[in-house]
């Protein structure tokens, strides 16, 4: 339960930081994967599949969510 609380706290801190400074915190793929069930509601294997080839970069939660959604559901109409 402490891990989930930590993940939720990290998400909230990232949102607050964006409000305060306009800067959004980025996380490694490894860190996002550790908390993917709490943040995105997907298993680590699903997250790993979606992020295959993206391991060397840091992402905001929103960026990772876009990659995950595109992998799960395909590109949406009007997306680039």
Automatic annotation (TrEMBL):
Pfam families: YqzN_YkzM. It comes from the Bacteria. Residues 25-72 form the YqzN/YkzM domain. This is YqzN/YkzM domain-containing protein. It comes from Anaerobutyricum hallii.
């Amino acid at each position: 339960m402490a891990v989930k609380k930590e993940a939720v706290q990290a998400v909230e801190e990232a949102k607050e930081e964006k409000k305060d400074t306009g800067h959004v915190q980025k996380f490694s793929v490894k860190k996002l994967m550790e908390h993917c069930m709490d943040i995105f509601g997907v298993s680590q294997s699903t997250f790993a599949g979606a992020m295959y080839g993206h391991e060397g970069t840091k992402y905001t939660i929103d960026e990772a969510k876009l990659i995950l959604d595109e992998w799960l559901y395909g590109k949406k109409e009007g997306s680039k």
